[in-house]
Design brief:
Elements (H helix, E strand, L loop, with lengths): L1 E4 L8 E7 L7 H4 L4 H8 L4 H22 L8 E3 L5 E3 L8 E7 L2 E7 L4 E10 L6 H8 L2 H9 L3 H19 L10 E5 L4 E6 L7 E6 L5 E9 L4
Antiparallel strand pairs: 1-2, 2-6, 3-4, 5-6, 7-11, 8-9, 9-10, 10-11
Helix pairs in contact: 2-3, 4-6, 5-6
């Protein structure tokens, strides 16, 4: 497993780290950096590849956060919100923000500076050529998104690039993704930036950026910029 910082800047106070897995190798070293509950969860995965993705990603996250909060990786106080979004259970308002996603042989971890952002989200997906684009669009896309998908020369790219950005935004918000897929509209802008349409007035100041994912994957990050004081 390799953990590397993203080579290009993506936004003020936002860091992205990527991981590349050997899905056939049991993650024995990474396992030692998890809590007892996380090890038990890893053990419930029947397939080696699933254990690798969960264990290596969680251990890498713990190492990154441990360096910022000053403790051992297994001691980092990670908790979960009502919809499963993880966060640092620390007193004060300056705890680092984070989110993570994995798919196939890759994972992404995003860290955010609480001084400039109030939420972060990330998503990476392996692009499967046999996906039923029409079915996905009917369940998850707004009318405008569906029209853009139908007009796209590369429908697979149009589908997945919107999907990962949509999921990254909803993960940043911290709500159930499935229930709110049509509450966010994703539209391509310049230099990988996405234009967002939002049906919920309270969801303001969100930004989304497409990442240059490994071949055969799509990825995006999102964050909520803090209001100027």
């Amino acid at each position: 497993m390799r953990l590397m910082p993203w080579p290009d800047p993506v936004g003020e106070g936002i860091e992205v780290h990527c991981l590349h897995f050997d899905l056939a190798a049991e993650p024995l070293a990474a396992r030692q950096q998890l809590t007892h509950a996380e090890r038990a969860k890893a053990d419930r995965f029947a397939r080696t590849a699933d254990r690798v993705r969960f264990t290596e990603t969680r251990a890498a996250l713990r190492r990154l956060l441990a360096g910022r909060v000053g403790c051992e990786p297994a001691e980092v106080p990670i908790a979960s919100g009502p919809h499963g979004k993880p966060y640092l259970d620390l007193a004060g308002s300056n705890a680092p923000l984070f989110n993570l996603s994995h798919s196939g042989a890759h994972a992404l971890i995003v860290l955010g500076d609480a001084a400039v952002a109030s939420a972060v989200g990330v998503d990476i997906e392996e692009c499967k050529a046999d996906v039923d684009a029409e079915a996905v669009a009917s369940l998850a896309f707004t009318e405008r998104e569906c029209n853009e998908l139908h007009a796209a020369a590369d429908r697979l790219h149009a589908l997945y690039s919107r999907w990962v950005a949509k999921e990254a935004v909803l993960k940043a918000i911290g709500v159930g993704v499935a229930e709110h897929l049509k509450s966010i509209g994703i539209h391509h802008g310049a230099e990988g930036k996405m234009a967002l349409e939002c049906a919920v007035p309270e969801w303001t100041n969100f930004k989304a950026v497409a990442l240059q994912a490994p071949s055969g994957y799509a990825a995006a990050i999102a964050w909520r910029a803090k209001e100027p004081t």
